[in-house]
């Protein structure tokens, strides 16, 4: 099976987003062929080069998203009219409001948006020169007409000339993937399946491949692209009219992606809720949790508890959102109940803000907890210690978790809690605050308290510190749950199953023509989509025009083996 | 509330009281507040930690942990929370939230020391409308949001989850955000006038650089008058090279610098060079051709058998400075009008006089420079037309319109080339009639009529083109991609 993997600012580039996950996916599913289609996000990425790729990656195509090569094409009258129609339609839909709430009226708008988008893509495919046209006076005029039309929302009606120009520039940037030459029969059109590793710009080529060549689309979103657009396009970045129109475009695009994708795989329930909200059908969503390497935690997780009794451990990146102040106050209450308790904070600060916050927390710890000594003649020590990974107390990450009887998390804002999963792999009992995907990750295998509630946190910690048996029980359950849900293997297996499901439900039907232009029946046999490589290396490139049974060696599917099993 | 619940609360309250005392004595900073602006402010705890009774949840809802140990409270919470994805609804969530004591240690204990003993929520903590409190807290976000999803994203970034939203009796953050979006007052006239976009500044670099071609040309011309023989050829070579480099530098910086074009620039450049060369040597060449020559090469002085028109060339080189200033005026004026106009038509009607005004200004400056450099009034139209043509072509190129300038420059260059080629072709036997139009023209108006006509027509065409294209808002869009 040939899979077109679509990334944006990610995988094949060194240090790209989600590079590790994509690498594991590609290496883990070596029975498939992967074609990489990567959009780069900046000049540095292109100069830094690509990571080493495994042999199952048969092709890498890259395109810049940060610059628009000017192909110098100026439209004649007919393409210009077509462009004006499509862009005008797009602008009208954008001015109809941003929120794609499912409904009859909205379905019509979504259709119109899709038609306009595909119209522009077809124009770019046939004539080229879309970039220049998107910046042209025709485009700005169409935007103005749509904004001034009766029924446009008030923010859009207030758009001034600079706002219109800014919107046109934003749209030009967002629609750059339309001008790519990736949609022919020997590029994305030859794939059996497009897998977009993110929403937004990465999924746009997948949408077009689906439109032009009926290639089914699978979209994986670990962070909701639409949401990050909203956060990036804050109130101070642009005028309200610009923000309204651009937000409207992005939410319409997200809705179109969610509508057209065969299967959506959000990384957690939070992403899933956003997708459902933007019109994704429930039946086509499969949550696939991100996988982590469990092997390095197995030693700690399987060995008996060697932790110092009464030690709480916090591991992570020191940031204000992690609310360590609340943790210190909780620990103050823990100390009142359990005077022997100690707290170990392991982590390095993230950025300037994190450094300042770490200093703040150190000062607070010094104020709350005076140094203590065992006797009158020994040197004292603070019950709260701040260390980094690699220090004597925590030489490695698993050791850091192993040193604690209980792992504590006190975040106020959280995405997918990686550190919590690591603690689960280490078989630690955990107390965490209910933020982000924590509840979904922990299931029933740890304690959860409301965020910003030091007393509840303290009570839960004390309860676990006093009850070693319960700690061991919860830790074992957590490890079992993490091994079931959050390993790399489950992630890859899930995608393997989803690939097969998609291909079995909606195979690409290609009509292959022979030399005289007559359609060749049975030219693309079903066997061509079986997982696994062809026995004959000469048949590997697999031009679907020539079925392998034509070339001589008969193809044996897996049927005889199955029969043998059954007969026995 | 059951007795068990009170007992549990008593334990917690005891802890709280002690915490309060210690904080009061220790004088430490506020607990539970991330110091960064991104997270919650100190008051957020009020509604987060609210007792469910405040929100009208029936008191019959199980009060949570019962009389046994504290930790099971947390587990009850846990199960309630993990059930949430099913249809547990607000009551389960409120129950889950119950271990959050009514008094958030971030605010209440410092102001109300009684709470350690008595855990009844104080009356002032009974908002009739919890959403209103939330709206007040996130007023800025809600007022400036362009749609409900933006509020939802902002709330989530502040730590609001579906569990929190359930306390406001909403199914999820999205419906809470919708209510906030619907309830926030949006008065139309509050929007401030946008700041005008930054006008490109006058930099000393290009202001000086733009004087360089004129200065170098003046120096070359002056040196040529003094020099003789071989020194003169050397001088001509050096002078032309220096002026070419200076002009290239002047066009790379400042308001005359256009986008770097990889293709289609070669032809335009060749045409421009041909036009300039014709302005220098063309009139002498045409005279010589018509009188049977040319017999010698030009010597670089404005007399002799093949005179060189140094005075108009000097005026044109000096005119680089007014050209740059005119381009700057056009850009700055267009930016101001862009910010000030409501619609595209407004901008077009405001930009047209601006364009024509700057153009007239340049022509006036060039017309003043020509007599100063010693150009005869009879020969003035040709350099004037050439200057107009070059400026309009450059302005169009700077604003990304390359097609028109290439055509116009090519046409002018071709016309001039034809004017020289036709008399030469007329020398062939039987082709004498080819000479007639050029000879008539030269006899009537002199040899400078040829470039004046060729460049004048092309300049007029380009000016008409510019009044259509350069008055569009899209021509003045700020370059550089938004992000």
SS-derived structural category of chain A: alpha/beta
Main pleated sheet of chain B: none
Distance between the first and last residues' Cα of chain B: 55 Å
How would a textbook summarize the main sheet of chain A?
6 strands, parallel
Find the count of extended strands of chain B (DSSP E, 2+ residues).
0
- Tell me the name of the CATH class of the domain at 295-485 in chain A: Alpha Beta
Tell me the CATH superfamily of the domain at 295-485 in chain A. Answer: Glycogen Phosphorylase B
Radius of gyration of chain A: 28 Å
N-to-C series of helices and strands of chain B: HHHHHHHHHHHHHHHHHHHHH
Question: Roughly what is the average pLDDT of chain B, rounded to an integer?
Answer: 72
Catalogue the unreliable spans of chain B: 1-124
The residue fraction in helices of chain A comes out at 40-55%
- Radius of gyration of CA atoms of chain B, rounded to a whole number: 41 Å
Question: Could you say how many structural domains of chain B there are in total?
Answer: 3
- Backbone shape of chain B: elongated
Task: Tell me the total number of β-strands of chain A.
Answer: 12
Domain DUF3492 (chain A): 1-281
Protein name (chain A): D-inositol 3-phosphate glycosyltransferase
Pfam family, one (chain A): DUF3492
Quick take:
Chain A has 568 residues and is α/β, with parallel strands linked by helices. Chain A contains 23 helices and twelve strands. Chain A has helices at residues 19-28, 43-48, 77-95, 104-127, 130-134, 137-148, 154-157, 161-174, 203-213, 225-232, 240-260, 269-277, 295-302, 324-337, 351-368, 397-402, 418-425, 438-442, 454-466, 468-485, 488-505, 548-551, 559-567; strands at residues 2-8, 33-40, 57-64, 193-196, 217-221, 263-266, 311-315, 342-346, 384-387, 406-408, 429-433, 447-449.
């Amino acid at each position: 099976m040939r899979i077109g993997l679509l990334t944006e600012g990610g995988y094949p580039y060194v240090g790209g987003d989600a590079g590790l996950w994509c690498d594991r996916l590609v290496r883990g599913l070596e029975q498939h062929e992967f074609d990489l289609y990567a959009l780069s996000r900046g000049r540095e990425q292109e100069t830094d080069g690509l990571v080493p790729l495994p042999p199952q990656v048969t092709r890498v195509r890259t395109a810049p998203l940060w610059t628009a090569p000017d192909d110098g094409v100026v439209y004649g009258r007919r393409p210009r009219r077509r462009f004006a129609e499509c862009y005008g339609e797009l602008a009208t839909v954008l001015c109809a409001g941003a929120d794609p709430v499912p409904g009859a009226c909205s379905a019509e708008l979504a259709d119109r948006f899709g038609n306009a988008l595909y119209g522009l893509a077809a124009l770019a495919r046939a004539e080229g020169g879309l970039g220049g046209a998107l910046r042209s006076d025709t485009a700005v005029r169409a935007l103005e007409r749509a904004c001034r039309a009766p029924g446009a929302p008030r923010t859009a009606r207030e758009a001034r000339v600079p706002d219109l120009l800014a919107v046109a520039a934003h749209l030009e940037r967002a629609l750059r993937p339309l001008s790519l030459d990736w949609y022919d029969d020997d590029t994305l059109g030859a794939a059996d399946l497009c897998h977009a590793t993110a929403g937004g710009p990465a999924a746009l080529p997948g949408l077009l491949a689906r439109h032009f060549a009926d290639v089914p689309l699978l979209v994986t979103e670990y962070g909701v692209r639409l949401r990050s657009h909203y956060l990036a396009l804050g109130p101070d970045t642009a005028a309200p009219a610009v923000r309204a129109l651009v937000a409207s475009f992005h939410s319409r695009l997200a809705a179109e992606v969610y509508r057209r994708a065969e299967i959506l795989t959000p990384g957690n329930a939070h992403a899933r809720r956003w997708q459902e909200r933007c019109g994704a059908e429930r039946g086509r969503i499969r949550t696939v949790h991100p996988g982590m390497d469990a092997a390095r935690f197995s030693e700690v997780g399987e060995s008996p508890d060697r932790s110092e009794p009464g030690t709480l451990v916090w591991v992570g990146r020191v940031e204000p959102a992690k609310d360590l102040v609340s943790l210190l106050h909780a620990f103050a209450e823990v100390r009142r109940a359990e005077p022997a308790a100690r707290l170990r904070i392991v982590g390095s600060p993230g950025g300037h803000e994190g450094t300042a916050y770490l200093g703040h927390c150190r000062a607070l710890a010094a104020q709350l907890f005076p140094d203590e000594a065992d006797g009158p003649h020994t040197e004292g020590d603070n019950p709260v210690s701040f260390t980094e990974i690699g220090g004597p107390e925590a030489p490695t990450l698993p050791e850091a978790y192993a040193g604690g009887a209980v792992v504590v998390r006190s975040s106020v804002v959280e995405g997918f809690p990686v550190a919590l999963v690591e603690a689960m792999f280490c078989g630690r009992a955990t107390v965490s605050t209910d933020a982000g995907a924590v509840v979904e990750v922990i299931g029933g295998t740890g304690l959860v308290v409301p965020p910003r509630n030091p007393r509840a946190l303290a009570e839960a910690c004390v309860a676990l510190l006093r009850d070693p048996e319960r700690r061991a029980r919860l830790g074992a359950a957590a490890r079992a749950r993490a091994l079931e849900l959050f390993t790399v293997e489950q992630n890859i297996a899930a995608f393997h199953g989803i690939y097969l499901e998609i291909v079995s439900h909606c195979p690409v039907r290609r009509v292959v023509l022979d030399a005289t232009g007559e359609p060749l029946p049975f030219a693309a046999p079903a066997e061509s989509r079986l997982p696994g490589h062809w026995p004959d290396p000469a048949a590997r490139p697999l031009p679907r025009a020539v079925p392998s049974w034509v070339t001589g060696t008969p193809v044996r599917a897996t049927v005889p083996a199955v029969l043998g099993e059954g007969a026995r | 509330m059951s007795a068990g619940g009170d007992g549990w609360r008593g334990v917690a309250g005891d802890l709280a009281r002690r915490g309060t005392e210690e904080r009061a004595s220790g004088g430490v900073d506020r607990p539970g507040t991330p110091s960064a602006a991104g997270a919650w402010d100190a008051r957020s705890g009020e509604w987060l930690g609210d007792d469910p009774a405040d929100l009208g949840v029936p008191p019959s809802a199980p009060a949570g942990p019962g009389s046994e140990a504290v930790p099971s409270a947390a587990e009850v919470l846990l199960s309630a929370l993990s059930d949430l994805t099913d249809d547990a609804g607000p009551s389960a969530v409120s129950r889950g939230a119950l271990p959050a004591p009514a008094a958030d240690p971030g605010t209440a204990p410092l102001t109300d020391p009684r709470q350690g003993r008595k855990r009844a929520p104080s009356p002032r903590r009974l908002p009739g409308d919890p959403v209103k409190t939330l709206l007040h807290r996130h007023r800025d976000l809600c007022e400036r949001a362009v749609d409900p999803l933006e509020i939802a994203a902002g709330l989530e970034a502040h730590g609001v989850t579906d569990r929190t939203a359930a306390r406001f009796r909403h199914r999820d953050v999205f419906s809470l955000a919708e209510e906030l979006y619907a309830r926030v007052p949006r008065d139309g006239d509050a929007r401030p006038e946008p700041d005008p976009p930054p006008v490109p500044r006058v930099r000393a670099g290009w202001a000086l650089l733009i004087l360089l071609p004129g200065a170098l040309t003046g120096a070359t011309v002056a040196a040529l008058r003094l020099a003789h023989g071989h020194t003169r050829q050397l001088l001509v070579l050096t002078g032309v090279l220096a002026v070419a480099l200076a002009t290239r530098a002047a066009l790379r910086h400042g308001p005359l610098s256009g986008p770097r074009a990889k293709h289609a620039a070669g032809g335009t450049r060749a045409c421009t060079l041909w036009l300039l060369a014709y302005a220098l040597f063309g009139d002498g060449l045409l005279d010589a051709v018509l009188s049977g020559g040319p017999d010698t090469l030009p010597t670089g002085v404005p007399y002799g058998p093949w005179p060189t028109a140094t005075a108009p060339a000097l005026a044109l080189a000096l005119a680089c400075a007014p050209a740059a200033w005119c381009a700057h005026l056009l850009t700055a004026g267009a930016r101001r009008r862009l910010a000030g106009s409501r619609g595209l038509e407004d901008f077009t009607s405001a930009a047209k006089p601006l364009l024509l005004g700057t153009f007239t200004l340049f022509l006036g400056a060039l017309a003043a420079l020509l007599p100063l450099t010693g150009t005869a009034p009879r020969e003035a139209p040709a350099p004037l037309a050439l200057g107009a043509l070059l400026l309009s072509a450059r302005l169009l190129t700077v604003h990304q319109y390359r097609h028109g300038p290439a055509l116009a420059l090519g046409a002018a260059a071709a016309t001039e080339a034809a004017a020289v080629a036709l008399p030469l072709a007329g020398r062939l036997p039987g082709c004498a009639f080819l000479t007639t139009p050029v000879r008539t023209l030269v006899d009537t108006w002199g040899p400078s009529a040829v470039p004046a006509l060729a460049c004048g027509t092309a300049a007029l065409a380009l000016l008409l083109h510019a009044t259509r294209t350069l008055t569009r808002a899209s021509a003045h869009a700020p370059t550089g991609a938004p992000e």
